[in-house]
């Protein structure tokens, strides 16, 4: 699937930058164009791979290149004011070669938190291809204002995109490690998961065509219907067959060893599917009740078989209760077999309910503190008996 990616804010820009690097390393061909939008000049300069002409600085009149702090209302305002500048960069993209837009942002900050939903709304008005969001939730230790920003951005972003895929920084923090220190690793985990999902079906010339191909229309169908998505992932290292990898594709009905190989391959796939669905998801949630799912099995073709994928798919249908579970393979010459599962339309997500609760508390605290400091200031400035008159 070919995407036009737009990273909004610092996290968004860094993640899209990383997608370009992933594309380069794996030849997956998913990033047809990459744009970064920010109100902080330094963040744009810090990017490595996004072409300089695709880096758009917005809000110069208001914040002079210094960013919006964590003020996401200001982030939304300047995105609206400068939407033409963002559109100018998008005009350079050959959108007829693109299957969908992907707007990426951290939802806890200011620029991306406020700006990404504004951009999504704008894109949906102009283009007919789907507009997806990839939104990052802040760690719970980042504090009340980040949680409040994320809760408000989440609500708005879901409404404006065709589907919001969510990644929760909180559940990816290593114990004893600050989220900040681990961003590099976290971003790699993000691009790996979404890279495999979106890379399926993008088979380059001369590469093997998958036995049961996942193409972009299946990804689009899985994401259609809107709502919130999460991704599960599991992988196992395998040895690459130096002979070129047509070995076990033809096994199954042959001699004893071949049967054993086929059974191993099937078992490996089914256990990877279970691990991916029951392990750590990008957004932790109950998978039962998922509306639609897509299973992608990536790896050297001799380690993929239809039986394994079919079993994994059936198992997923039972676990999720969904009647719409798609599946297919994605042959690639990497020394691992990986299962990536897109669970679309999840609704039982306690993490979001907790986030909203904390956000409401933070909002009340902020209102109380503001009221209190207004009262305190008045008490300081005014004399007790109201005997003094201001000059004017
Ligand atoms: P903005 O530039 O004002 O949009 O704000 P940021 O993108 O810097 O930060 C928003 C939130 O994104 C933070 O609260 C973090 O939770 C998260 N964040 C910042 N940088 C990264 C990153 O590189 N990777 C990930 N996964 N999250 C990040």
Automatic annotation (TrEMBL):
<dbReference type="InterPro" id="IPR017975">
    <property type="entry name" value="Tubulin_CS"/>
</dbReference>
<dbReference type="GO" id="GO:0003924">
    <property type="term" value="F:GTPase activity"/>
</dbReference>
<feature type="binding site">
    <location>
        <position position="169"/>
    </location>
    <ligand>
        <name>GTP</name>
    </ligand>
</feature>
<dbReference type="GO" id="GO:0005525">
    <property type="term" value="F:GTP binding"/>
</dbReference>
<comment type="similarity">
    <text>Belongs to the CetZ family.</text>
</comment>
<feature type="binding site">
    <location>
        <begin position="10"/>
        <end position="14"/>
    </location>
    <ligand>
        <name>GTP</name>
    </ligand>
</feature>
<dbReference type="InterPro" id="IPR048737">
    <property type="entry name" value="CetZ_C"/>
</dbReference>
<dbReference type="GO" id="GO:0005737">
    <property type="term" value="C:cytoplasm"/>
</dbReference>
<comment type="function">
    <text>Involved in cell shape control.</text>
</comment>
<dbReference type="GO" id="GO:0008360">
    <property type="term" value="P:regulation of cell shape"/>
</dbReference>
<dbReference type="InterPro" id="IPR037103">
    <property type="entry name" value="Tubulin/FtsZ-like_C"/>
</dbReference>
<keyword id="KW-0547">Nucleotide-binding</keyword>
<dbReference type="GO" id="GO:0005874">
    <property type="term" value="C:microtubule"/>
</dbReference>
<dbReference type="InterPro" id="IPR003008">
    <property type="entry name" value="Tubulin_FtsZ_GTPase"/>
</dbReference>
<feature type="domain" description="Tubulin/FtsZ GTPase">
    <location>
        <begin position="2"/>
        <end position="195"/>
    </location>
</feature>
<keyword id="KW-0133">Cell shape</keyword>
<dbReference type="InterPro" id="IPR032907">
    <property type="entry name" value="CetZ"/>
</dbReference>
<feature type="region of interest" description="Disordered">
    <location>
        <begin position="367"/>
        <end position="392"/>
    </location>
</feature>
<keyword id="KW-0132">Cell division</keyword>
<keyword id="KW-0342">GTP-binding</keyword>
<dbReference type="Pfam" id="PF21011">
    <property type="entry name" value="CetZ_C"/>
</dbReference>
<dbReference type="Pfam" id="PF00091">
    <property type="entry name" value="Tubulin"/>
</dbReference>
<dbReference type="InterPro" id="IPR036525">
    <property type="entry name" value="Tubulin/FtsZ_GTPase_sf"/>
</dbReference>
<feature type="binding site">
    <location>
        <position position="187"/>
    </location>
    <ligand>
        <name>GTP</name>
    </ligand>
</feature>
<dbReference type="GO" id="GO:0007017">
    <property type="term" value="P:microtubule-based process"/>
</dbReference>
<keyword id="KW-0131">Cell cycle</keyword>
<feature type="binding site">
    <location>
        <begin position="110"/>
        <end position="112"/>
    </location>
    <ligand>
        <name>GTP</name>
    </ligand>
</feature>
<keyword id="KW-0963">Cytoplasm</keyword>
<feature type="binding site">
    <location>
        <position position="142"/>
    </location>
    <ligand>
        <name>GTP</name>
    </ligand>
</feature>
<dbReference type="InterPro" id="IPR045061">
    <property type="entry name" value="FtsZ/CetZ"/>
</dbReference>
<protein>
    <recommendedName>
        <fullName>Tubulin-like protein CetZ</fullName>
    </recommendedName>
</protein>
<dbReference type="GO" id="GO:0032153">
    <property type="term" value="C:cell division site"/>
</dbReference>
<dbReference type="GO" id="GO:0051301">
    <property type="term" value="P:cell division"/>
</dbReference>
